[in-house]
């Protein structure tokens, strides 16, 4: 199947949706291709997660976001972004993966595959990449990481009741997972290569996890690293020597990164030190003419520089540039 549009947006997270809205409002016929569901990354957040920000900082398309509490939760965010996509009648193709981008500015060909294995070809003049970073987990690169018991995303604690669970990492996601697992009756061990819980952990979470560790309710190995994951145990290198502990499940919550391989295959030039894509700061157009970057991927490996709160404004910048170019 072949379809023609002015612009194709890869990714339907909050930033991708914001780009689609801004483009359509400028009369630019746009399609959004999303390999998962709408706001797929937020869907994969922990079930009971609350954002660390207020509702107005998550808003897109000038549509107010409401919340029962000061900070919105995952369920409220999912509902909000669904309603925004519906309100603006955005053309979002879910569960469809971009395989390849060919052609050049004003004459791109985008090849995709949908969830049923069907192949699609889109002929478009401009492309916006808003692929985020949450879909590619950082790896431990240790033997046994391929076992089914190793998880890179934490959803909820119930399935791990009365099991030996290791949480690797010491930032917000790891601290929250360790606490919820402990509260639900799992035997939790936290393993971190650094000397302590990260200072970036939110102020209402950090003393809680530290107190659980101090009381011996959560076992912790700092300045330590996993060297092998076995079916029923873990081998850990610690400052006092190697230890082996019983283990049923592992949550490797050591961060995520942009899909740099996809960016490179698309012809995007990356800075060698930071892996930050080279873009025009005034338009966010990449070194491959006609392809624009939006959201956290603009920051390369420095994923803590851009969040929904500021990435959502990329849509206005990019849409203005595209509309201006298409009008020439």
Structure notes:
- The protein has 328 residues and is of the alpha/beta class.
- It is built from eight helices and 17 strands.
- The protein folds into two domains: 205 residues, FAD/NAD(P)-binding domain, CATH 3.50.50.60; 114 residues, FAD/NAD(P)-binding domain, CATH 3.50.50.
- The strands form four sheets. Strands 1, 2, 3, 4, 5, 6 and 17 form a seven-stranded mixed β-sheet that branches.
- Strand 12 and strand 13 form a beta hairpin.
- Helix 1 runs parallel beside helix 8 and helix 4 packs across helix 5.
What is the gyration radius calculated from CA atoms? 22 Å
Which geometry do the CA atoms define? elongated
**CA(first)-CA(last) distance:** 29 Å
Structural class of the secondary structure composition?
A: alpha/beta
Q: Please tally the helical runs, counting DSSP H or I stretches of 4 or more residues.
A: 8
Weakly predicted, low-confidence segments = none
Helix content: 10-25%
- What is the H/E order? EHEHHEEEEEEEHEHEEEEEEHEHH
Instruction: Report the portion of residues in β strands.
Output: 25-35%
Mean pLDDT: 92
| Domain module count | 2
The CATH architecture of the largest domain comes to 3-Layer(bba) Sandwich
- Give the CATH level 1 class of the largest domain: Alpha Beta
Main sheet attributes: strand count, strand direction, barrel closure: 7 strands, mixed
CATH topology of the largest domain: FAD/NAD(P)-binding domain
For CATH, the homologous superfamily of the largest domain is named as FAD/NAD(P)-binding domain
* Number of separate strands: 17
